[in-house]
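Late entry, evening session. Most of the bench is empty. Finally got around to the prediction I had been postponing all week. Sequence below, unchanged from the version circulated by S.P.
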Amino acid sequence: MIHLFSEAMLTAFVLAALASAMPLLLAAIGETVGEQSGVLNLGVEGLLLVGGYFGFVATLLTGNFWLGFLVGALAGAALSVIMLVLSVLLGLNQIVVGLGITLAGTGLTSVLYDFSYGDSKPRLGLADPWRIPFLSDLPVLGESLFSQPGIFAVSLLLFALIWVWITRTTGGLRLRAAGQMPAALDAAGGNVTLTRALAVLCGGALAGLGGAYLALISAGTFTPGMTHGLGFLAIVVAMLGRGRLPWVLLISLVYGLLVALGTVLQLTTVTIPNDVISMLPFVVVMVVLTLFPRSSALPPALATLYVRGAR
């Protein structure tokens, strides 16, 4: 078992864990922002796929990974406009609209990919080096981890900024009020509709960024349906986090570690069926939901239309 703890194996384990955790983290942060405002978006799966596809195409055509991430985030925000218009502005059922977004994102990306790249199935080369002083020189991890684009560092920075914004700023207070007591926010002079609209766009952009991370960094390519339920898992993670982003980060990292464990075990002499390894993260989530059902408390006004002056 000594080879299991070799430098190469440790590097593969950490990189696989981060590659699995970061897309989930970004999507779960976006869903957390939306849920705290009172909007339940079940279309995260479709947002991830749209962000992944358009980010992949932009990078493939230009060779610029940064542009790919930007396009992926914009694509996620653009698709989330459906939720903004139909649910936030027109008051249609958020669950139905969210499922529609998932179906639309899945179908759209599959059709576009098969039409444009179905025969060639292109892959991306390695990203341009992006080094952080001192950290890039760390043994084992520095060269592999920080030779990727700075999107890893940007993702952690986004996590920190959004955490501070939600918990320490007036804007974050308004966001939480829109999901907790929208009437109180309205009475205080806030705009519930605008708050929720901006939250939906922010959540869509983060989910699109997560999809771009999945395609550009984790997989190095795009394949139709490549998320395999990751968007729905992000919704569960957001619910378990209860608006507390450190918990969202912790759960995402645990998920990444479980996925990486399965990847590493496949490189050893340990014989575990692939199906068991694939199911392990989802089984753990189900166990957590069973043991801590009250921990998934949601904002009282979640998925509820607010009409000014209505009782």
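Two things to note before I forget:
The CA atoms of residues 88 and 205 lie 17 Å apart.
Residues 128-147 have pLDDT under 50 and may be disordered.
Will write this up properly tomorrow.
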